Structure formats: C-alpha cells, structure tokens
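# step 3/5: fold
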Amino acid sequence: MLAAILSLSGLDLTSDEASLFRDAGPAGYILFARNIQDRGQLKALTDSLRDLHDRDDLPILIDQEGGRVARMRPPEWPAFPANEAFDRLYRFAPASAIQAARWNARAIALTLTEVGITVDCLPMLDVRQPGASDIVGDRALGSEPMQVAALGRAQLEGLASAGVVGVIKHIPGHGRALVDSHLELPIVDAGEEDLVIDLEPFERLADAPMGMTSHILYRAWDATLPASQSPTVINSIIRQRIGFGGFLMSDDIGMEALSGDVGTRAAACVAAGCDAALHCSGKLDEMIRVAEAVPAMTAEGDARLTRAMATRFTGGEGMTLAEAIDTRDQLLALA
C-alpha cells in the first residue's frame, strides 16, 4: 500500500486515474467539491473506488466541517454550522454545547455514510488565539483548551455513532499561525510554556483513530522544518509527548507552506514519520510524481490504518438525520 492519500479530478473516475490507482494502491482518497454533484453521482463514485481495490473498508475522506469548510452543500445536502456556534453555546451551557456538537457530528456522518464516505477531517482542535490568521477563525471550537477538547471529543463520538472515522487536526496546533499555510509558511515563535495550551486538546484526544499534521514551523521544537516534515516534531512531540498512536497523515502537500515539487514534499512528510502524505489537487501528473516518490506504507502505518478503519463499525442505532438536526438546533437556540 502506497504511503499517500490521493484525489480525483472530477465527477467520475477516469481511465487514467483508475490505471494509476490500481498500480499504486494508495492508502485512501480525499474528495472535494469538484468531485460532487448529487447523491447518486457521489455514491457511484465512491463505489467505483471501492470496486477498484475490492476493499469495503477503503478510507474515503472529505473535509465536511460545516460553515465555510463544506464540500457537500445545499440544496442537495443540509447546511451545517461553523464550530463557532458550539463555542458560543459552551460559554452559557457547556453540557448543552457538548450535546449539540455530538448530534451535529452524527448528522454530518449520516449524510456521509449514505454516499459511501468513511472518514471526515473533523474535529479541528486548534486553540484559537487573538490576532492569528483567520484561516482558523470561526472554524475553532474555542480559545480554552479543555473546552476545545470536550467539544472535539463529542464530535468524534458523533461521527463514530454513524460509522465515520474522525481526524484530529492540525497537530500540534494551528491556532497561533499569523499567516495562512495555504499561501506561505507560518512561523510560530511561542515558547514551551505557551505551547502547552496548543498541545492540551491533542493530549486529551490522543486516542483518536486518525490525525493530521500542520505545515507550521515551531521554532521551540525545530528551527528549520515545518511540523509535517520534522522528525523531531512528529516523533518527540506528536508520538511521544502528546502520545498520539493513531494513523497520521500530513496536511495537503499542495499548500504553499512547503517548498519543492510535490514528490519532494510528499517524500519528506513520509520520511519524517507521517504514515501517509495527503495530495489534494486531483492533477494526474502530480499524483504520478507522488506515487514515484513515496515508499510503501510501513507495517506500523498499515496496522494503525487498519485499527482506525475498524472503529467505524462500532456505531449503533441512534437519532435519524432529521432528529439529530432538530435536537442540535434546539440546543443552539439556547445561546
């Protein structure tokens, strides 16, 4: 299995993509708005990926957070609130906010399982800091670590209740970035004492099945390499200090925080300790370079991925989509 998660160019799996994917055997796939039209088309697309590999547990990822980060949108699917809504409610009624976050995540998961999507890149555990880039902004679950962890745990549980694997991101914390890592490399100068705040939500949710690194340089830990390409950050901070034992992917290697071509970027992430590099552009020539540059996944990475995907079968019966949304809305109205 290739140590990469790849993407697709459009609404259907092309013959060239099928040939590459069959030969390369990536760890999974991630979908974007360009791949999504309606329920029937999306289910057919995810079925075609599963059929290609004959894997019922194939990781098919999406960023469906709610608010401005939503690949599946109205009128075909419900609109979901940004995380700031749960942050607001938590200030008045913490228990109600936790319940609202849980039912909202279950509702999201129900829309995903209907179309064959198995992994959602949620929850976002970045602790919001004043003056930071708005790339986090209303996506954050708050500015207090224990609150972020509590709401994040509820989101993980809500996703799992409907058979979807959650991904904690962006380890070890994106909340202090002063610039958008999609556009340039953020450099964080905070010292160890301050960075304890960033780490706390990830430490509290270290048992999460999957995680995603950040393309941020933290001078306190590694003065030259961003976290996703830093063996020091991945091994000493993420694996040892945080204690995260789940499947670890990089953030999108197409982001301009990284330098070099896509193959170099992907290989550096895997060499540093990421189980897989995440490639999101859907450009075939780039995916070929990634497939040529990264090795097969390690035995440890493969085991972590297997354990992560096995968690999606632990969900039981619960509220329907309409019931979960209605309950969420009643709770959010309290704020």
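# step 4/5: annotate
The chain is about 40% helix and 15% strand.
# step 5/5: archive (pending)
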